[in-house]
């Protein structure tokens, strides 16, 4: 494993946080009627999310459609107003500022979009697209220097500066995504919110864009909020990972902790559902197949929002003989009590202290301990722990992976977690 | 991953460096199409005719000799090259002098309707909420009130108002009526395409950059929402010219003694079965020719201004 | 769950004489569909664009063939050609597609579609676009049955419920009367699969069936496809760009690049020892969850293929991959490497395939 990127977490000062949200919520009214519109309900797209993004770091945000991750992104870049909670840029609450100050501060948070085919105005030349931020923020670059600034931006993202007069359709998907990145960088932001930036790109081009983003981060000290449904991409790029389900963060922590030592049953199911490009690792009984689709955010389930699909709740109910059938066959507690994020601060290597919230591994499950230990630790990480492509097939990728056995991820090893779990639910002992 | 089929796949950027402006490039593309050139010639021809009618005929359209009634076309060089109408008025002179009120009316009405419709549609689609409610309900009200009923109402209102006899004065009343009932289509189309366009990622991107509503509407939403309107305009022009004829019956069309194509078409239609089809065919031909030319031009212009089709 | 499909296949029930009749039973391994040297061109302002160029593959009963490639490689176009569903701007210029001996491409367009539509079914990526919003799901499910075998409405509804049960849509009897927008993405894709199964096809072509779905739902749909295929011994053609999906379900893999097949191999061999540089590059450039301790997993740079796949009409001379290939030599720029056998059961269109295979063994 490369140098753990989390070692400096504990020492990072709070003023390192460039973007923070506290208890953020965004709901959309559901209206009915043609002439007189009545509000008949609310879709809670984001419901009480707190996250912090530190300078030069990448926070990965994963979740299925409807989890609210894209809504969160739109609130962060100021396209949507939150219905509750705060957005803090550089420690200052955006909502309490004057219009002008807010606009200035907003410059620090820019966005990279998913679809390179719709995110660029087809009627504007590349030069105009990249220069548009200068026309909106007239003080960003003096008028005379704009042409050069555009050329520099294009060069920065690996495009030919002579192509300023071309139109978006003359570029490939990967190149368009570079144009979108150049536009976002024009006002010198400190945070880029990347909403599925590579999921519309070809496999062989995805890597180019990811590498570009990483280079830019090193060069410009950018922070990324990296939203993706592809867990492997997030694992690659993110320092910390937050998992969202139906508008809530259900698990958060540094990358290796979440990927190697997931404590929320949803995270574990997500991980086990990711197809692994290795036919020898075909999912077998270990796969935690979730049933059905995520419920509608307009009518989230009571208690723990995941309980209607939760494999762990079923299993626990079976073991403890909860009567009934169907979605109600779950422990009473899951149905009635909304779990909060609790620190799991009990890491095998002791990297994170228990009480330290920053960078700590947290999960919102009444039975987080059981989730981490029950079953055959079926995450792909575990399946492949001796290295990808173990016999019968030789290693599929010998060049890039010279010695997979040399440094197994300590977090991937389930054994240290198998400390005895008391019958007493975890939550009680850890509630603050 | 969306996989564009080969037909839609984006070709690699060609080796040529496109350095010319969009306008200059559009002009170069238009010149290469013979249908565009022919259409342009037709439109210019009628425009010149409307502006300088005396270049085309020296006959006074008002000088009608009832004895020459329904003279068949005599060919070039004769007294009545295109014959005369029921009242013995010279057809050519009437066509030539009728072009000015007809075309002027058409362009004024369509121009004003597009302006009003696009503006209201854009505002309604962009802001939604009460703006949209007001605009949409107004559109509906104007759609359900019959044009003729409203025309009669206005007629009675303006019955005693004296307007002059200048080029604009003779079309003032019909222009008012037709514009009042002509903008709703554009408003609806633009509202619908604004709704679509404003949720596109590049509009969101502009908003994330902090662009003002005005900038977003003008730079990003409108150019991509105006497409359907350009398709409506040529046929709307034809519609205005023929609707004017109907209004003429009610006395709020082009005011006699001024003549227009619409009036000629209406009058001529009575005689088609009576053995004098040319009374209808000449003005109708002019109208169709103008509209077809505008359709071709509008289409070509839209293509030429779309960078995707370059 | 078994549903009675025989009614649909009754001889004489269908107007098209080649469409139905005494069809041989599906025995595992029997060749059902054989595509040979298929070439498809698109008309365009710049002349004819070759979208598919000399593609061959074979679909066997009870086995899954994956067609893998990036956008524009021709994997979807080739299937549309087999189904007779090419857009008017495209045409087949060469090749055959034999379904149990009958060359589909040699039939008239109407017969082609009827024949292919009966025996070869297709599932598309965008289930919402493929379903008509104004008809109930049940109505659309059995449209093929009603059109082709004159099934009554009542009987059709019964069948529709059976089909929904088959694809594990809960409360099938109730949901059959609902409209597509009332279904979630995953459920819609199940409906699409059910509708493809309505005529009990021999071959199912699934074009990116799970690309629009969430991972947890993707896993469900993939498992469903595998179950149904195993139960019915269908031949399955899975078109995808996702090497993870391929590894999970495919038996054989054909990798396509710029309209051509560049490698064909049994799935284990392909992942273990790719015999074409493009395949190798694809496998390398994907970040993988299982690559713990690998640079690709965390932090380090992803190995990338420079450039991008060529668009049809801009395919370079020689080997289409040579401008992006780290093994390219002079010959690659001038000569087109043929798809040759390099090992039992596998072939590669690379002059240096032996080197690739040998290099790994060493």
TrEMBL record, chain B:
Membrane topology: Multi-pass membrane protein
Transmembrane segments: 36-56, 103-129, 141-158, 170-189, 225-252, 278-301
Keyword Cell membrane: yes
Main location, first listed in the record: membrane
Key words, A-Z: Cell membrane, Membrane, Transmembrane, Transmembrane helix, Transport
A family per Pfam: OppC_N
Gene3D superfamilies: MetI-like (1.10.3720.10)
Ranges of residues in domain ABC transmembrane type-1: 103-297
InterPro entries: BP-dependent_transpt_permease, MetI-like, MetI-like_sf, OppC_N
Record localization: Cell membrane
Family membership: Belongs to the binding-protein-dependent transport system permease family.
Entry protein name: ABC transporter permease
Species this chain originates from: Isoptericola peretonis
Lineage of origin: Bacteria, Bacillati, Actinomycetota, Actinomycetes, Micrococcales
TrEMBL record, chain C:
Subcellular location: Cell membrane
Keywords attached to this entry: ATP-binding, Cell membrane, Membrane, Nucleotide-binding, Transport
Chain residue ranges for the region called Disordered: 1-21
A Pfam match: ABC_tran
GO molecular function: ATP binding
Record-annotated ABC transporter domain positions: 33-283
CDD domains documented for this protein: ABC_NikE_OppD_transporters
Recorded superkingdom: Bacteria
Membrane topology note: Peripheral membrane protein
Keyword Membrane annotated: yes
Family stated for the protein in its record: Belongs to the ABC transporter superfamily.
NCBIfam families referenced in this protein's UniProt entry, alphabetically: oligo_HPY
PANTHER family referenced in this protein's UniProt entry, alphabetically: DIPEPTIDE TRANSPORT ATP-BINDING PROTEIN DPPD, OLIGOPEPTIDE TRANSPORT ATP-BINDING PROTEIN APPD
Name recorded for this polypeptide: ABC transporter ATP-binding protein
């Amino acid at each position: 494993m490369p140098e753990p990127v989390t070692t400096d977490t504990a020492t990072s000062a709070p003023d390192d946080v460039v973007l923070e949200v506290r208890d953020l919520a965004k709901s959309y009214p559901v209206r009915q009627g043609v002439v007189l519109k009545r509000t008949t309900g609310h879709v809670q797209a984001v419901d009480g999310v707190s996250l912090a993004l530190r300078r030069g770091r990448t926070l990965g945000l994963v979740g299925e459609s409807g989890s609210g991750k894209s809504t969160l992104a739109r609130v962060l870049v100021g396209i949507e107003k939150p219905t509750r909670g705060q957005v803090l840029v550089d420690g200052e609450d955006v909502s309490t500022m004057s219009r002008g100050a807010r606009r200035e501060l907003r410059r620090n948070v820019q966005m990279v979009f998913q679809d390179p085919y719709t995110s660029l105005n087809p009627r504007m030349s590349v030069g105009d697209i990249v220069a548009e931020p200068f026309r909106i923020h007239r003080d960003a670059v003096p008028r005379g220097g704009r042409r050069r600034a555009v050329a520099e931006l294009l060069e920065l993202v690996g495009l030919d500066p002579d192509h300023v007069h071309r139109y978006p359709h003359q570029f490939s998907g990967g190149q368009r995504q570079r144009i979108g990145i150049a536009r976002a960088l024009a006002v010198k932001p400190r945070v880029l919110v990347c909403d599925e930036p590579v999921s519309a790109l070809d496999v062989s081009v995805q890597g180019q864009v990811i590498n570009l983003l990483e280079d830019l981060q090193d060069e410009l000290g950018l922070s990324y909020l990296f939203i993706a449904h592809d867990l492997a991409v997030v694992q690659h790029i993110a320092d910390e990972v937050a998992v969202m389900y139906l508008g809530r963060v259900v698990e958060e922590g540094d990358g290796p902790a979440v990927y190697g030592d997931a404590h929320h049953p949803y995270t574990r199911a997500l991980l086990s559902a990711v197809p692994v490009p290795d036919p020898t690792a075909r999912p077998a009984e270990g796969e935690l197949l979730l049933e059905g689709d995520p419920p509608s955010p307009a009518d989230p389930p009571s208690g723990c929002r995941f309980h209607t699909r939760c494999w762990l709740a079923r299993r626990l109910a079976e073991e403890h003989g909860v009567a009934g059938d169907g979605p109600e066959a779950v422990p009473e507690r899951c149905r009635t009590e909304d779990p909060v994020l609790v620190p799991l601060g009990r890491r095998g290597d002791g990297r994170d202290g228990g009480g330290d919230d920053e960078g700590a591994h947290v999960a919102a499950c009444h039975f987080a301990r059981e989730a981490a230990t029950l079953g055959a630790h079926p995450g792909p990480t575990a399946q492949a722990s001796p290295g990808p492509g173990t016999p019968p097939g030789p290693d599929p990728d010998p060049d890039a992976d010279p010695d997979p056995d040399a440094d197994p991820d300590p977090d991937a090893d389930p054994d240290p977690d198998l400390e005895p779990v008391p019958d007493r639910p975890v939550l009680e002992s850890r509630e603050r | 991953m969306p996989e564009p089929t080969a037909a839609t796949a984006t070709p690699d950027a060609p080796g040529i460096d496109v350095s010319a402006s969009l306008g200059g490039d559009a002009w170069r593309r238009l010149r290469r199409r013979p249908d565009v050139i022919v259409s342009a010639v037709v439109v210019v021809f009628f425009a010149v005719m409307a502006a300088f009618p005396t270049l085309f005929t020296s006959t006074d359209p008002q000088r009608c000799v009832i004895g020459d009634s329904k003279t068949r076309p005599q060919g070039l060089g004769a007294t009545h090259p295109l014959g005369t109408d029921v009242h013995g008025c010279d057809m050519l002179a009437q066509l030539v002098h009728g072009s000015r009120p007809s075309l002027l009316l058409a362009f004024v009405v369509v121009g004003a309707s597009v302006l009003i419709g696009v503006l209201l549609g854009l505002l309604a689609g962009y802001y939604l909420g009460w703006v949209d409610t007001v605009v949409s309900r107004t559109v509906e009200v104007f759609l359900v009130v019959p044009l003729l009923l409203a025309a009669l109402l206005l007629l009675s209102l303006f019955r005693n108002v004296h307007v002059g006899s200048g080029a604009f004065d003779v079309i003032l009343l019909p222009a008012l009526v037709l514009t009042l009932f002509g903008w709703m289509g554009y408003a609806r189309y633009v509202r619908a395409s604004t709704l679509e366009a404003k949720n596109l990622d590049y509009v969101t991107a502009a908003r994330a950059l902090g662009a003002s509503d005005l900038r977003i509407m003008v730079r990003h939403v409108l150019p991509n929402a105006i497409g359907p309107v350009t398709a409506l305009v040529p046929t709307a022009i034809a519609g205005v010219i023929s609707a004017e004829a109907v209004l003429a019956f009610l006395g709020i069309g082009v005011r006699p003694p001024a003549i227009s194509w619409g009036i000629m078409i209406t009058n001529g239609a009575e005689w088609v079965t009576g053995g004098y089809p040319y009374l209808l065919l000449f003005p109708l031909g002019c109208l169709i020719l103008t509209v077809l030319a505008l359709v071709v031009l509008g289409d070509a212009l839209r293509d030429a201004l779309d960078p995707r089709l370059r | 769950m078994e549903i009675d499909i025989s009614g649909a296949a009754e001889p004489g029930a269908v107007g098209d004489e080649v469409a139905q009749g005494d069809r041989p039973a599906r025995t595992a391994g029997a060749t059902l569909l054989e595509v040979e040297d298929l070439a498809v061109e698109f008309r365009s302002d710049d002349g004819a664009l070759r979208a598919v160029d000399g593609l061959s593959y074979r679909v066997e009963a009870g086995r899954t063939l994956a067609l893998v490639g990036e956008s524009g490689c021709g994997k979807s176009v080739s299937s549309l050609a087999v189904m007779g569903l090419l857009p008017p701007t495209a045409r087949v210029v060469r090749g055959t597609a034999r379904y149990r001996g009958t060359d589909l491409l040699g039939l008239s367009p109407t017969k082609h579609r009827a024949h292919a539509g009966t025996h070869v079914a297709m599932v598309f990526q965008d289930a919402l676009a493929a379903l008509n919003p104004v008809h109930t799901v049940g109505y659309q499910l059995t449209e093929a049955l009603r059109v082709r075998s004159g099934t009554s409405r009542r009987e059709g509804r019964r069948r529709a419920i059976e089909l929904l049960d088959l694809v594990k849509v809960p409360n099938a009897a109730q949901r059959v009367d609902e409209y597509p927008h009332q279904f979630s993405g995953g459920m819609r894709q199940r409906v699409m699969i059910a509708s493809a199964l309505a005529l009990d096809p021999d071959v199912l072509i699934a074009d990116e069936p799970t690309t629009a779905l969430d991972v947890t739902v993707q896993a469900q749909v993939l498992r469903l496809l595998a179950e149904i295929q195993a139960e019915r011994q269908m031949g399955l053609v899975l078109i995808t760009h996702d090497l993870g999906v391929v590894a999970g379900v495919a038996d054989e893999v054909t990798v396509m690049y710029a309209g051509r097949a560049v490698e064909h191999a049994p799935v284990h061999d392909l992942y273990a020892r790719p015999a074409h540089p493009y395949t190798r590059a694809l496998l390398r450039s994907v970040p993988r969850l299982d690559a713990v301790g690998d640079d690709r997993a965390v932090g380090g740079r992803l190995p990338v293929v420079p450039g991008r796949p060529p668009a049809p009409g801009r395919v370079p001379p020689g080997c289409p991959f040579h401008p992006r290939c780290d093994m390219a030599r002079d010959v690659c720029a001038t000569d087109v490497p043929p798809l040759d056998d390099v090992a039992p059961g596998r072939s590669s269109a690379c002059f240096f395939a032996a080197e690739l295979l040998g290099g790994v063994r060493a």
